[in-house]
Known about the structure:
SMc04008-like_sf, SMc04008-like_domain, 102 residues, 0% strand, 71% helix
Amino acid sequence: MTEIDPKTQTELEAAVYRRLVAHLQARTDVQNIEMMNLAGFCRNCLSNWMKDAADAEGLGLTKDEARERVYGMPFPEWKAKYQTEASPEQQVAFAKAAAEPH
């Protein structure tokens, strides 16, 4: 395996994260519940993880600020523009996944 120094590793990981966030911002048709049901995480998870990382560094990033960084706009605006009602099937799948041990 190619050796990568820690600084470069961090830069690569940051680039991947930025690309993932840009991809999710462009794919407003993909609902969070779909992501949760298929992958076990969603945009809200990413924003929560960002807030956790900021908290660990002693930064005053709020939950709303973290969400805006992930969604590319205030969450209520994204929700009004793009969030659709979850189908009964999606809700059942989500409840089933939430009940399973991780």
